[in-house]
Amino acid sequence: MKFIADLHVHSKYSRATARNLDLENLYIAGQLKGITVLGTGDITHPAWFKEIKEKLVPAEEGLFKLREDIARVCKDYIPDNCRGTVRFILTSEISSIYKKREKIRKNHNLLFFNNIETVEKFNQALDKIGNINSDGRPILGLDARDLLELSLEISPDGFLVPAHIWTPWFSVLGSKSGFDSIQECFEDLTPHIFAVETGLSSDPEMNWRVKSLDGLTLVSNSDAHSPMKLGREANIFNTDLSYSHIKHAIKTGDPSLFCGTFEFFPEEGKYHIDGHRKCEHYSWPTETIQQQGICPVCRKPMTLGVLSRVEQLADRPPGVRTEGRHPFYHLIPLNEILAELLNVGPNTKKVNKVYGALLQEKGYELKILHELPIEFLSHEKVPLLGEAIRRVRKKEVQIFPGYDGTYGTIQLFTSQEKEKMIGRL
Q1: Burial class (CB in 10 A: 0-12, 13-18, 19+), 376
Q2: Burial readout 104-127 (b: 16 or more C-beta within 10 A, e: otherwise)
Q3: How confident is the model at residue 375 (pLDDT cuts 50, 70, 90)?
Q4: What are 19-52's pLDDT values in tens digits?
Q5: What residues have CB less than 8 Å from 158, skipping those under 6 apart?
Q6: Least CB-packed of 39, 133, 236, 359 within 10 Å?
């Protein structure tokens, strides 16, 4: 069975997340996007875990589904063309801040479990270590290696995936507080790490340059802080629908089971290149070296982005593709495409109205972005939609890169080009 999974998601109990980020809206948005398996996120938070136990019921092995009476109410918000199966897998992101080898480390890691009882034991153990009530993504003074050991002691069926591994401030390979290898972080337990999350500011091709990541499956997830951010990155599976089959596909990296990923254009990520947001200054790695990492505006150190960090650790040149790599597909969320074509913001009523009409007519979002032939994508209210999606698929886009916490922007057409093309229709 081929399906899409987004395994890194948050709840309304995490900081800086939408108030409507609940199980009902995740269930709805999952179907609008075309996602079959969703991480619950935030299982360590007592209030969210209580909702999970009240609203979800067991489905296939290790997976959960929304209670039928709740799902029935949600169906009214889902176009007929988008209705499908949604399953949840028990997940959480944990922030570890600790000192190791005379340096402060700040790592984010994703934890996966296959049953409620295991999560209860895990939460009880964490509650003795730190505060798990204040944030859906708890901050613990726990070495990432020890976090992995604790999870394995509680359940050998659980697994840990280092999150957005290149992000400067909170990741295992980040320029500000990370390590130079996975081995350096997890030491003797490194064999239990079989996958890493690439994050929005890198794509698989960038990760292929680092030999120490060979043999690890590169997963991609949305890290969604609101329901409609689901699927901006996601994974493609071809397995039975179960926890153990999903884990096996990720662990082995078998290309017949783990079929690749959907990716942000990494330049659009918040930390792709180097810069200093307060001074509105950014630079590419070669320029940063010339500037000795100092912002020319304020003379303070810049935040080194993902591209610079990859350059520091790379032992292969750009563009090298070795054996056994999974395919990946760059995407731009449909509401962002519509916003450019309609000359309005991506979260406006106009975009939402056209978005709903497109899904009702064509099917779920990832079908529109990735599957449908271009000739089937014409629409009277967005005449350049087919050409826009063709350009995304062919990577014929202009990107203004993100830096120091500021998202990059993507342009598909110049205003003159758009006017000229519409005039010919």
Answers
A1: exposed
A2: ebbbbbbbbbbbeebbeebbeebe
A3: very high
A4: 999 999 999 999 999 999 999 999 999 999 999 9
A5: 111, 112, 113, 114, 118, 122, 151, 152
A6: 133
